[in-house]
C-alpha cells in the first residue's frame, strides 16, 4: 500500500513540476518575443505596437476574431501587409506545444 501511495505521489509531483515549468516557459517566451509589440498585458499599447496597429488582445471581440489555429498560423508564418512585415514569423523557433501555450496565454488577456 505504501508503495502505491509513494508511486502516486511521485507521478503527481512530476506532473505538477512539468505544468509549472510550462507556465514559466510560456511567460518567458511572451516576455522575450512578444512584449515589445503586444505589451505585458496584451493591449498592444507600446510604441512598436501602435506603429504596427497591433490589436488589443484584452478585447473579447478581437479574441473572437481569431481561432486558435489562426493564432498558431500567425505565430508560425508572421503577418505581412503587402511586402512589409508587421509581425515576425517564428517558424520553428517554438515547438507546437509552445505555440499552443502562447495561444492559451493570449486567451487569458481577455476581459
How would you describe what is shown here?
The protein has 111 residues and is mostly helical. It has a single domain (2-107), classed as Cytochrome c-like domain (Cytochrome Bc1 Complex, Chain D, domain 2). The protein contains 6 helices and 2 strands; from the N terminus they run H-H-H-H-H-E-E-H. The chain has helices at residues 2-33, 35-38, 47-51, 60-64, 68-77, 96-107; strands spanning 79-81, 84-87. A two-stranded antiparallel sheet has the order 1-2. A hairpin with a 2-residue loop joins strand 1 and strand 2. Helix 5 crosses helix 6. The N and C termini lie far apart (47 Å). Residues 5-21 have low confidence and may be disordered.
Describe the largest sheet.
2 strands, antiparallel
| Average residue pLDDT | 85
State the shape.
globular
State the order of secondary-structure elements, H for helix, E for strand.
HHHHHEEH
Strand content: 5-15%
CATH third-level topology: Cytochrome Bc1 Complex, Chain D, domain 2
Count of structural domains: 1
Summarize the structure.
By secondary structure, the chain is mostly helical. The protein has six helices and two strands.
Question: How would the blueprint of this fold be written?
Answer:
Layout: H1 2-33, H2 35-38, H3 47-51, H4 60-64, H5 68-77, E1 79-81, E2 84-87, H6 96-107
Antiparallel strand pairs: 1-2
Helix pairs in contact: 1-6, 5-6
Amino acid at each position: 500500500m505504501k508503495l502505491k501511495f509513494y508511486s502516486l505521489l511521485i507521478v503527481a509531483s512530476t506532473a505538477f513540476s512539468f505544468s509549472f515549468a510550462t507556465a514559466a516557459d510560456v511567460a518567458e517566451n511572451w516576455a522575450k518575443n512578444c512584449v515589445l509589440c503586444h505589451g505585458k498585458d496584451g493591449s498592444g499599447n507600446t510604441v512598436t505596437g501602435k506603429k504596427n496597429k497591433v490589436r488589443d488582445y484584452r478585447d473579447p471581440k478581437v479574441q473572437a476574431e481569431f481561432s486558435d489555429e489562426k493564432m498558431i498560423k500567425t505565430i508560425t508564418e508572421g503577418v505581412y501587409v503587402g511586402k512589409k512585415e508587421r509581425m515576425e514569423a517564428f517558424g520553428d523557433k517554438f515547438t507546437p506545444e509552445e505555440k499552443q501555450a502562447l495561444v492559451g496565454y493570449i486567451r487569458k488577456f481577455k476581459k
